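Reader question, answered in our methods column.
A reader sent in the components of a multi-part assembly and asked whether the whole thing could be modeled at once rather than chain by chain. We filled in our standard form and ran it. Here is what they sent:
COMPLEX SIZE: two components
ENTRIES:
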Amino acid sequence: MDFGDSPAEAEFRARLRAWLRDNTPALPASSTDDEYWAGQAQWHRSLYDAGFFGLSWPVDIGGQALPSVYDVIVDAELAAAGAPPRPSLGYLVEGIVEHANEDVRQRFLPGIVNGRDRWCQGFSEPEAGSDLASLRTRADRDGSDYVIHGHKVWTSYSDDADWCLVLARTDHEVPKHKGISAFAVPMGQPGVEQRPLRMINGITKEFGEVLFDGARVPAANMIGGPGEGWALAMTVVSHEREPGELGYVARYTKLVEALAGRVRGDPSRFGAEQVRDLGWAIVESEMLRLHVIRRLSDRLDGMSHGPEGSVDKLLMTSVEQAVGHAAVSIGGAGHGGGDDTWLKVYLYSRAQSVMGGTSQIQRNLVARRILGLPA
Amino acid sequence: MDVRLTPDQQALRDAAAQLAGRLGPRTVRELDDETRAAELGAALSASGWRELRVADDDGTPLASGVEAAIVAEQLGRGLADAPFIGPTLAAELRRLALAPPAGVDETVMLAPRLAALASGPEGAVAIDARGAGSALLVLPTGDGYALAAAELPVDQVDVRTDLTRPTAVPSGTVTRLPGPLRTLTGDDLATWTALGLALACADLVGTMQGAVQLACDYAVARRQYGAAIGSFQAVQHLLADAFVSMEGSRSVALHAAWAVDALPADDALAAASVAKAYCARAGRTVCETAIQVHGGIGNTWECLAHVFLRRALLSSDTLGGTGDSLARVLHHHRIGR
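And here is the structure of the entire assembly that came back:
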């Protein structure tokens, strides 16, 4: 039982810290700025090339097969250096690792892990949000290809993506969960139209919608077998709910430290209520840091992922939104000509209780699958 | 970095759970069963768990804060009405002051409002006072603190807040422990406070677990509109939130327990304060949820839900609740007092 570093972990931490001294990119503090997303691909590649990304994944796809707790060290050091968080795409990797055949694994995973290929996730649709299995995008067999028609929305990173992991209906005769297949679809082709969506904080680079109108994908790009798309989707979203996978701890720690710095710099400007909001943001973000260590330690047993991802998602949401409240409380809402950076951080925080499955859905899952309450 | 419990720690957890499950009160009525309570007290004495913080030959405690917290959590979960935190904290004070073990059952005295160790008799309150003959406190000496004790009136305990862990007001005069003893430093008191907070957090985590289980069992059994109330989303979401708060609490409490012996005194106190702010807030909300899910039954004396809430309230106040803890956290970040 040890929250401290082993000798090997300490050596890794020292190496990362030294590298960060010379290699921290001058990106904005958080993902609440278009410039941040524009620099994300470069940051991913530089982090990977230096040996600090994809640590826990298998060696054959570019990982280092290290225990997941090494990601805790990465998050802590990135936050301390003021660097951007590590790229959040572990859930795609985990989903493909678990469901793909060897050919798909070798063709796609190394490029995702090393950052040379950019990916987005085409799951949600205008009429299929929480009820994802009701999705209508269709993939119809045509020779050695499938032809895709449909509309995906709330698609993060779609403007930057080379590939889209698309869930599409390939069988219309079976119950809705059973007729879905997953494909790696190239974005750069006629028949794929990407449109940016403007988020409530004004950024346009993170969020998009993708229209497929006769886009073609080779049948060999199907991930898993026909009708196995739902199982893959569930693996992906369960990982997408884990803060250890997303690396958000670094972002929260950094935001909280910046807010604390503002208060330290001019304490007389801040009232008891604002300082209290900061106190809770410190406590919440520290909770998540420790919770991630606990969860990643459990994985040393080779523990598989179950409904506890929903617990973690709800905890992560409470942290993001406590930090958001402290941001607007201490940073200010930007009226009267002030800086609106912190307002943007706050507004961005509202998405956390929706993305990757709403908090309402997570509570349903905790109640039924963990607490054993009746349906 | 590996924060899984060791096999020995898992065995300790299971043994403590088994003891509290077998001899703890399972109904409100059983709280009045003196025979059962005496058996629980005797079994806890025989376990040796109250001596986990007694000094080994080299002055270090026999066991770390993690082991002490493991026991505290299971006793909280089982609403154990036998002293543990009090005697454990008394042993820690004696260890730090190089004082010999006590001859009688002993606990500690906290300042009014319970937010700190008592540094004088004025308004001081002994916690976990069941069966205790005396309670330890400190007296300022100019260059530190001297260990002192006061007698407790064994038959005049107060169970108005926590039905399972009475408090008491000292009856006799305060006398310094005979020396030569080590003068306690500010760092000693920080370490001691960190241990006390970590144990209070562990007790809160256990209390939350017991309350969530009680409420879930009720939600499955209780039927309205022809269905178990636990099948309604409104009830499910209350219980899911309670469970999630408990899981977050478990993570901070575990770190606080580890930090007691692994980090410098200031950092250990900061870790304990983060944990206490989180666990105190969560503990009250979770136990309130347990009452809410029980509906009208939850507002009657016979339902165990209020026993959990009362225990959580006392644990929350022990060595400082959310406000005091947040202030300590902010201070550690060089903000505020």
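What stands out: Chain A touches chain B through 51 residues (CB under 8 Å). The beta strands of chain A are 119-122, 138-142, 145-156, 163-169, 180-186, 192-197, 207-218, 222-223.
Send us your own complexes using the same form.
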